[in-house]
Structures are given as structure tokens and as C-alpha cells.
Amino acid sequence: MFRNLEIIWTSFKMALQEFRSNKLRTFLSLLGITFGIFCIISVLSTISSMQRAVNDDLKAFGNKAIYIDKWHWGGGGADYQWWKYVKRPTPKYDEMVLLKQKVPDAVRMCFEVQMDDNVEFGDDILTGVSYYGNTEDFDKIQQVTVGAGRYFQQSDFDRGTPYIVLGYRIAERLFGKPEKSIGQTVKLHGGKTAIVIGIIEKQGTSLLGGWDYDNSILLTYRFMKEMIRDENANPKILVQAGGKISVPALKDELQGAMRSIRKLSPTQEDNFSLNDIDSLGKFFDPIFRGMNIGGWAIAALSLIVGMFGVANIMFVTVRERTSQIGLKKAIGAKRGVILTEFLLESAFLCIIGGLIGLLAVFVLTLIFSAVLHFKVYIPLDIIILAVCICLFTGVSAGIIPAFVAARMDPVVAIRS
To answer: Do 99 and 254 form a contact (C-beta atoms < 8 A)?
Structure first.
């Protein structure tokens, strides 16, 4: 065991010595390894961070949630048949009441309306604020955390009391400190006044868009109904599946129930859309997969170039140390020891190149985190993968020079 540790330590010192004595030559030879590791770690880390941000954003829509809407969320591009969806009727509150009776497997259900308008306090006016009016189960389907004050009580939903819950950014812009907004009266759409009873915990920017709670206000559906008609407020029905039923099975039940409620004949197509959040998440999988393939392709090319560079270093090193190799073999060093030393030295050189690439990626993550709308980090498994790639590349690049060194004749090597 101590013999093996000595070989490893000797190889590591030789790699550092090679790097110190021939800095420019070694750095240029390792540039391909550095760039390849940089590509792999940067691409995989960015994609991993994006996937995490997307998953967090999708959780905000609700776990196992289905949105009944007139619009199909898979829209975009020339194939999107918007003219067909715009003619559909909007979901109605009475339809949600009937769905609760017809679909008992839906553990939670709520009705939502939405519009954009101003919020006023004193002489301050904020424009483009999103109003969300909802029924009781909204905060149970979506992740809404009240940081200060309270959320609506059942009596608020029943009576439509003029209370609102402010988004963090709205409260900050109107009152300076969000906590000061509790109990204050603000003016809403159509001159309606409302009392602030709570502040939504700061959310930050969403990668997918969706609900920008920091710049929104929440109201009860009955209070919102006093300001705008349902059909003009982009209404939706939010449904959440229970633990005993899968999302596809619940969609089948909802489809049958909605067709029954709207009295559609068997020959008529659906005039509503069931937007599945889980399926929406799968939409991004091929995008991330393609980005991964592109990153691996660039990295593979760089690593191949870097492998030839490291092999060149090792051939030169073997040539420079020919007499040393002969002396070692003359005093009893076996072929396996010589082979292992050079393979480890080649691997250590690649690890040095990989560490330079890792350092560059770390700097890049700090820049990306400041610029992008999500935090970029380097997962531990990706770092381990990069080290394994460096070891594999180093062994592959050094295998031929190491065999040449191991098979040298000691007498000929010493004479040279």
C-alpha cells in the first residue's frame, strides 16, 4: 500500500514539475482539456440549474394540477389554431360547482379570474398590476406563502369582504417597507377601496413567467366579481388530483364531466382545454436534451484535441527522461511501476487542465447568476463527472507513451 502511495505521490510531483518547468508548452497542450471540461461543466450546470428553476416554477402552478381553460397552453407557432379557441365559451363558476359534484376524485378545486389594472395609495399610482380573484382552495393548489399579516378566511370568501393580499414588490413600492401596508386602505379598479390584510412572501422572478406574485394582488372571487364580469377576466377552473388517482385518469373524468355539463353530443369536439402541468414540464425535456447533446459534442471535440496535446507532452517527457527510466529499470523497477507512473502523471496533467476549466466555470456561474433570472450552480455530481473524464482522458492520452517507457531496454536507455 505504501509503495502504491509513493508511486502516486511521485507521479503527482512529476506532473507539477512538468507544469512549472514548461509552463507555456504545458498550458497550450492542456488548453483543449481545459476548454472541453469548461464546455461540459458550463453546459451541464446551466441546464441543471434551468431544470431546477423550471421545476420550481411548475410547482407554483400546483402539484398534479389541471387547468380547465378555453385556451390550449401548448400554443405557439404557425400550427396554433387560435381562431378555434377564441370562439370557445369561457369556464363558469357554476360549472365548477357542478364539477365538484360529478368528479369526487378531485381533491381540490377553485375558480379564478384575472385582470390587470392600477393600484393607488395617496398620490402614488402603480400601473399594470395583476389582480387574481379566487375561491377557497387556491392557496392549497398553488404555493402562496403569506410573509406578514394573514390570508383570507372562509368568511371573507363567503361575504366577498373588501380585503386584499399584496405582492411584496407592490407593497414595497407603495409603502417603502412592506410591513407598513398591513391595515392600510388602497384604491383599486373602478374606484373600489380595499384593506390590506397580508403580504405575499417575496418570490423573485419566474423563469416561465406564470404568476408574478411580487407584482400582483390577491382578492376573493366575490369581491373581484364586483369590479369585472367573469367572461372579461380570463376565467379558469383549477383542479388538483388526489393521491389515489393519476392525472391522466382525472383528466378523463373531467373531460366526460365537462362534456356532460356543456351538453356536447358524441360527434362534437371539446370546446374546452384540460391543461396538465405535468405534461407541460415534459415539454421542456427535448429542449434540455438537445442542449446537452450540443454541449457534449463541443466538449468531445475539444477533449480529443486536448488528448493529442497531452500525448505529445508525454512523448516529449519520455524522451527527456530516457536515462532516468533506464536507471530505474537497472536498479529493479518493473515495467508495471514505470507504466503506472507515466499514466498517473498524464492523468494528473489532465486534472490540472480540468481544474482550470472548473475555475473558469465558477466565475461564469457568478456572472450568469447576476444576469439571468435564476441561480446557476455547479452540482457535486457534475464535478465528479468532470474529474472522471479528466482521468479517462489522461489515461487514454498517456497509454502509448507509458508503454514505450515501460518497454525500454535499460542498457540502451542509460547510454542514450
So the answer is: yes
DSSP state of 66: E
CA–CA distance from 162 to each of 155, 170, 191, 341 (Å)?
12, 18, 12, 78
**Cα–Cα distance measured from residue 308 to residue 319, given in angstroms and rounded to the nearest whole number:** 17
| DSSP conformation class of 178 | G
pLDDT, tens digit, for every residue of 234-254? 999 999 887 778 888 888 999
239 is in which domain, residue-wise?
89-271
Does one domain contain both 229 and 321? no
How far is 364 from 194, CA to CA, in rounded Å? 46
Within its chain, how far is the Cα of 148 from the centroid? 28
Give the count of domains, the chain. Answer: 2
User: What would the 3-class secondary structure string for 320-353 be?
Assistant: HCHHHHHHHHHCCCCHHHHHHHHHHHHHHHHHHH
Residue 279 inside a domain? The answer is no
Report which secondary-structure segment, H or E, holds 114: strand 106-121
**Any idea what DSSP says for residue 355?**
H
Determine the Cα–Cα distance for residues 270 and 412; give it in Å rounded to an integer.
87
Rounded Cα distance, 53 and 57, in Å: 6
Residues 215 and 350 both lie in one domain: no
Q: Which residues pair with 236 in a beta bridge?
A: 112
Q: How sure is the predictor about 37, in pLDDT bands with cuts at 50, 70 and 90?
A: confident
Q: 410 near 329, Cβ under 8 Å?
A: yes
| Domain assignment of residue 209, yes or no | yes
290 and 322 both lie in a single domain:
yes
pLDDT in tens, 270-326: 888 888 876 666 666 777 777 778 777 777 777 787 788 778 877 877 787 777 777
Within a domain: residue 187?
A: yes
Chain Cα centroid distance, residue 270: 34
* pLDDT tens readout for residues 69-92: 988 876 555 566 777 788 889 999
Q: Is the pTM of this model over 0.85?
A: no
Same domain, 120 and 235: yes
106, 97 contact by CB (below 8 A): no
Q: Quote the pLDDT of residue 62.
A: 59
- Separation in Å, CA 297 to CA 2, 203, 318, 382: 41, 36, 32, 17
Say if residues 58 and 375 touch (Cβ distance below 8 Å): no
